[in-house]
Amino acid sequence: MNFLIPANSKKSLLIFGLFNPFDLILFGSGVGTTLLLMMILPLANTTMAFITIAPAVITGFLVFPVPYYHNVLTVIIGVWNFYTTRQKFVWKGWCAVDEQEKEK
Q1: pLDDT in tens, 62-76
Q2: Which residue stretches of 11-104 are H helix?
Q3: Model confidence, pTM
């Protein structure tokens, strides 16, 4: 009696099977900012054009799906948490008895 969980079991919780609501809000704000900058800034030279499309490109990169993770933003958050939090691993092996259990 082995049970196999399908690899895509969490995709039903996502919008279009790829995005969280926060991901769409983030990408939408980047695209909205880009559209606003296109109306405000003159696009006469290449530098201004790159500055104008940068918010949409950056937020698009952050919500781009990658294998084994939800998206690039999830990878960056995971790496940041790994390197900025204290890594303390307490061994509780199968043969170890906790001190709290001994006192009872």
Answers
A1: 998 888 778 898 889
A2: 21-40, 46-62, 72-84, 99-103
A3: 0.66
